[in-house]
Amino acid sequence: MRKVRRSPRALLKQRIKHARARSIYLLPNSFTLASMFAAFYGVIQAMDGFFASAAIAIFISMLLDGMDGRVARATGTSSEFGVQFDSIADMFAFGVAPALIAYEFALNTLGGFGWAAAFIYCAGAGIRLARFNTMVGVIDKGFFQGLASPAGAALVMGFVWLFEAGQVPVEFHEYKACITATLAIYAGVTMISNAPFFSGKNMGFVRRLPFWAVFVACVVIIAFSTYPGLASFILFCGYAMSGYLYQFYLYCRGLPNPVDPNAGMEDY
Question: pTM (2 decimals)?
Answer without folding.
Answer: 0.82
